[in-house]
Fold this sequence. Notes:
By secondary structure, this protein is an alpha/beta fold. The chain has helices spanning 30-46, 79-105, 121-127, 155-159, 165-174, 180-186, 196-211, 215-230, 233-247, 250-262, and strands at 6-11, 14-19, 51-56, 110-114, 117-119, 131-135, 139-141, 178-179, 191-193. It folds into 2 domains: 6-211, 2-enoyl-CoA Hydratase, Chain A, domain 1, CATH 3.90.226; 215-262, Lyase 2-enoyl-coa Hydratase, Chain  A, domain 2, CATH 1.10.12.10. It has a 6-stranded mixed beta sheet with strand order 1-2-3-4-6-9, with helices on both faces. α2 (79-105) links the parallel β3 and β4.
Amino acid sequence: MTYETLSVSVDDRVALITLDRPDQLNAMNAAFWNELPAAVRALDADGGVRAIVINANGKHFTAGLDLGMFGAPPDPADRTARVQKAARFRQHTALMQQSFSALEECRVPVIAAVHGGCIGGGVDLISACDLRYASADAFLTIYEVNVGLTADVGTFPRLCKLLPEGIVRELAYTGRRMGAEEAEYRGLFNAVLDGREATLGKAMEVAREIAGKSPLAVHGCKRMITYARDHNTADALDYVVTWNAGMLHVEEVQAAIEAGKQGGEGDFTPLPPLAGEVKGGV
Length: 282
């Protein structure tokens, strides 16, 4: 499938999504909010992809929301437009939130390779990823406060679980830049590399390592970690036992053990393709 705002390639079970509006600093226009989740869901539905890496072309990872998406205020004389304004805003914002939730809901790990600026909506994006690697020149900023907005597409629910609350509050209230070194120190970035190519190389290396593990086991890990983050310990313990009661298969365990002995790749079963419609023979 061809996209307007990004490109997608798959090599040896690892997918690479590249934000590709470099002349616009990869600002997130209307097409982006539809295309990113469509690409992620298509890759997930295939069943053959075991990890996804998101990177970007150009000077910056992303400048965030394309301000061109803000339309003119409704005509004061247009009652329908005035009454529907809040409802339309809520509906559109919910759809944008789902664009990044698709990264979290995807069955396979999603890895961000960040360089340059990761601004506004970019913070929402990387917060929904599983792992984050960055180049030394990378920085992030919750920029919305600088243009009179409150970040609302996912920054706070997720970033508050990745950084200390006081740091999130400082970033949100001031709009200041957090550099790559500080972000790594705070635990947001898994590692900082010398440049963009090294950053992408590291992200792809980790993705390929993940792709060599049991897809079902990795899927279970992702589900359990996210669930444990959002629930209490007792509920998380109960869920992981229930999950393994149905999802743990001795064949996958044996394949992993054999791979460890031989030092090669395990003969793992891929995840099933996601069904697009209800069919018989489940």
